[in-house]
Records
---
Amino acid sequence: MDGAQQIQRVCVIGAGTIGSLLAGHLSRVAEVSVLTRRAEQATRLERDGLSVSGKSEFTGRLRATADAAELPAFDLGIIAVKATDLEHVAGGLSGLAPGATMMTIQNGLGAEELVARHGDWPLISAVTFMSGTRHSDVHVEYELDTATWLGPWAPTATPMTTVEEVARLINASGLRAEAFADLVPAQWSKLIFNSAVNSVSALTELPHVALFADEDALAPVVRALIDEGKAVAAAAGVELYEDPWEMNVLAVARGETNRSDYAHVPSMLEDVRARRRTEVDFIAGAVVREAARVGVEVPVTAAVHRLIRGREASWELGRPAHVRVAS
Amino acid sequence: MDGAQQIQRVCVIGAGTIGSLLAGHLSRVAEVSVLTRRAEQATRLERDGLSVSGKSEFTGRLRATADAAELPAFDLGIIAVKATDLEHVAGGLSGLAPGATMMTIQNGLGAEELVARHGDWPLISAVTFMSGTRHSDVHVEYELDTATWLGPWAPTATPMTTVEEVARLINASGLRAEAFADLVPAQWSKLIFNSAVNSVSALTELPHVALFADEDALAPVVRALIDEGKAVAAAAGVELYEDPWEMNVLAVARGETNRSDYAHVPSMLEDVRARRRTEVDFIAGAVVREAARVGVEVPVTAAVHRLIRGREASWELGRPAHVRVAS
């Protein structure tokens, strides 16, 4: 394969918010199929199409199935499930689409390694800064129209020309994408930002509000988490693309000035509110694992990782039948 | 004043669980008055008496008022309000009962200093390990019949004979008490235990279950908090009475073996469930203040202190009108 327009058939695996935004937009410039978790959603998507509102307004037509074996052939697979579902989903893709390129777009670190264990596809790493709201199985609202960043995953030697073609396709579809020769610095910037902001949000149940940058409130703990992450990155030889503390300050300032009733709800807080397992093992947990590998102490990150896992455990435990008031 | 039986009139300030357990029992061996927050509770207590069930079974008769100026004279005042209410309550006692001894029984550190700013009463420090459930304004259940420990507060040079007399009175009433010449080692053991266990419980919403001593779960974060507290105690020249980590292991083992449906709910988790301000400033916050005073780093304790304050802030903020799903 060489030259332009090689990617004509795209399969989006996972139809959550990010998957729906990608599938909907890409259906305007490519043949799109979607792998859903529930058969009911696939049926509705094939019947009604996928409506996008907000920053884009259209209804895309696409193929959809809940059975990986029924997927039509594709040139590009975009795995847009949550990190917590990745092992299960990647296992189901094993042996499929041997000629395709696969792109991972999970929060945190480690998605590529996990997918690579299930096939020898060339892999593209991605981090996305766009966001939206999934109003139903067939309707997603496109809200924050910031970019998705792509880069070749070095161990599979994915050609940069392929990454650039995927970025062009995404841009042509109405979303924003940018291709990077080395995505690692940007991945780590976002990892460290999320390790701090998502963790603090999950434990306090606060959306990403001004208190996160307020020295009398949460700034010292956000900074402690970010400083630990930066120490790990430095020891791992990663130069960051953006400073995660500046990302925190800017994001909070944007929320304050634009809309008084608006505050970004990090995905882990969404999970806590819904009592769903969070992606903490792939975010703060990934920082802890990398810290152990490079021999850096990260006491605050290790603590919030375990506290969030404890919070998840509380949902399974329920409340004890017998409650005592403590001394 | 010298000799035995000098304390005949006791005023219990605050009629929560601990205050009600003390007032009810002491009414069997002394004239007891109670200062309540709500006039309605005082009226009911004077009319119906205070019923105690559980480990004790009786109804005590006592005086009660919500107006400090109406309190009858007393020899011993026991201030049993939450640490968060102490400043307000102590201010209202200013100028009252100049001949009385005052006893503080709050969680954490700093209650004595705060009370001392409002009067020159000799002060008794206390920590309690008993617990119960307050079923109504006039009914408290006595559950865990462990002791209350008392000691003279050194800056007011309270005579040890007075402390011993108070301990005898409490024991005679049907509760358990023990007098210590120096309570500081026991206060700090409980402070450090609570700084770890109450904080982890408040953030995870788990009662004090086996996960708190499980190395694959919360033990590393509980131990990190305890180790920071122990480093502060050592730097402050305090030798601990009990090892807080052993207290954690024993408490969890007791819960496991005694009743499968039982797990102790630390007071700060009660507060989180009720969306009430917690005593974290007097517990983990006190460790952070002492750490700054003696020049010890306590990054994990500082983080959980601010995270719990952030959690409290989330109740005032409410949920934003506009909710976004994060990338």
---
Amino acid sequence: MNDANLNSINGADERKSKTPRVVIVGGGFGGLAAAKALRKAPAQVILIDRTNHHVFQPLLYQVATSVLAPSQMSSPIRGILRKHKNTMVIMGEVSGVDKEQRCVFVNDADRQHVPVHYDYLILATGVRHSYFGHNEFEKFAPGLKSLADAVAIRNKILSAFELAEAEDNVDLRRDLLTFVLVGAGPTGVEMAAALAVFVRTTLRSDFRRIDPTSARIVLIDASRKVLGTFAPSLSDAAEQHLQKLGVEIHLGQAVEKIDSEGVTFGGQRIASKTVIWTAGVAPSPAGKWLGAETDRAGRVRVQSDLSVPGHSEIFVIGDTASLDQDGKPLAGVAQVAMQQGHYAGKFIRRRLAGKKSPKPFRYFDKGTMAVVGKGYPLSKAANCTYMAFWRGWRGLSFTSLFCLSSV
Amino acid sequence: MNDANLNSINGADERKSKTPRVVIVGGGFGGLAAAKALRKAPAQVILIDRTNHHVFQPLLYQVATSVLAPSQMSSPIRGILRKHKNTMVIMGEVSGVDKEQRCVFVNDADRQHVPVHYDYLILATGVRHSYFGHNEFEKFAPGLKSLADAVAIRNKILSAFELAEAEDNVDLRRDLLTFVLVGAGPTGVEMAAALAVFVRTTLRSDFRRIDPTSARIVLIDASRKVLGTFAPSLSDAAEQHLQKLGVEIHLGQAVEKIDSEGVTFGGQRIASKTVIWTAGVAPSPAGKWLGAETDRAGRVRVQSDLSVPGHSEIFVIGDTASLDQDGKPLAGVAQVAMQQGHYAGKFIRRRLAGKKSPKPFRYFDKGTMAVVGKGYPLSKAANCTYMAFWRGWRGLSFTSLFCLSSV
């Protein structure tokens, strides 16, 4: 452990006391829940994130469709953890982990691979979108994972309408008003619905030469169902509602090609100037950092206490972790990440206090939901966080509801 | 007049009817007020703006200091004019005017110098910042005129704190926490106060290694007074209050040099990583387009009916126009622009209706105001627009108050 280097990011004085240190990588739902659980722990907590803000990812599509502003969808991590006197936030990108020396390597604005020591490590690094081996699609079909992604997609959509208004060529105008979403999971379904509502309400009377309500919204998926992971009744209801909203749905056909002029799938071609990727996700490189066993999707296989086999001091949580419950893998949703973060934080707190380990982690399913157009929630059961959010949203004062208190 | 080219931006059908056409260049306070006044006029109104949104410029500094979000400070022009069935909005940049052929030249996303015919023209193109011949300053000291400027400055300020938190070199850390504002007019004064409040409230508890309240905020101006154009009593009160907020004020010294390391003025040097230009303004090139007489500052000299001498069909309004009232030039503030826009629109409406011209333009001063820190308005008299805005702001529902109804 190179103390001189460590100093440069942590400050020598802070390591003098031998307070145990917990490093959390990622300020998403999982990482923040872990930090919350460690608030009163006798430990120094360091949370490392690429940005300085937490993003309410499940509603990012609302930024992309101009429903909500970026600031309504994100909150400064430092602000959320303000009262955590034992917690320090570092804006930087983790480039690797040394399990033997117990340190993570961090790149910040002007330094590379600065080692930061840990006694306990929680990896909550989430996912990026996966182009299923077609990385060349990314240039033409941006994905939706970060706030910057959402703002870029929003600008792309709004620009398409502006360009169409100024365009005389009828074919080009039609291509500008064709929006293709690849992937009919929750993000694709919710975004298609939001876009359909957006062109029929907000934009309806804004233009003089084009009719925004004539915009063609196309949803494509390789599987035979929209919302494939949901209950069949919900999936059917969603599909019917999308059709009522005028969304064109193509199922059972994989996308073969995407370029600047449109999309090819199942031998069919749709010309479009705006293609958005709402399909697969790929886990962060946490598995590679750890040299740990991963599942087919690249997620780290964790034990029932969320730790990595052979390293009881390393926890992997949320979308980055692979864990089965009742024979089925847990889904990559916020609720799982939050409950796992809370568990890992509590686990460490108990161990530091010399108490025995808690029971194995068990996810309590509060329900799943996809919002298909205004006021049309498909809910298996009331999901506290979402409901609080929606309540707050109507009153336009929900930013403070980003706290993770419902876990 | 090249009709083929014109078609490409306006559509041939729209010129078939011989409805007179009013072209408004600029979607700021002046341009929108003119469009509002023309809502019921028997004319086709075309409003051209570089962006598709109106910006509430007097409070842009609040975006730069993270008080308000960009979306709270701007509103889509198309949305504001939605109910104006006679009005079309074009997103494009005007590159010139042909007074004889009566057309403006417009660049849009993929066309250059497209002529757009007018019967009446209203130029409301506003100002950019002037570096007084030192354009090399711009790179190191960005100005604050557009929404993009404000977001860039906000990110620069927030990054400085993030970098300072990770910085071990004490000197560099101090330079990162030194913020210099050049220009003590309303923008500089309001921004210095907002920044002082921001570091002492919002940021106060967010960092662990740096103390944001120790940030040094410096305000420099070549004149001997802050708010030089305000009444001396207000100017003195503002200066005292800034000092109370801990802002360091240097007056009577012109800035000689700005580089990436700091500012030199009056032989003195202040090291700073964040210098912001809140000084002079320069008018848009409208004077050059028209080949018209301008004042020393480059603003077009207009007649008492706001028209350009020799061209009763061309009006210049707002910051772009130079007009004396009671022997003094009118100030470049929103109220003047709004009243002038309303006047020019009404003038054209009356002329189209065959009525006689209205009385010469006269500005009714509703008061001026600078906000020096939270809840400290310096107001000569209640200014309706601002007051409505503030009332709205507290209730978080003010976006709709961007209408110009108080004129």
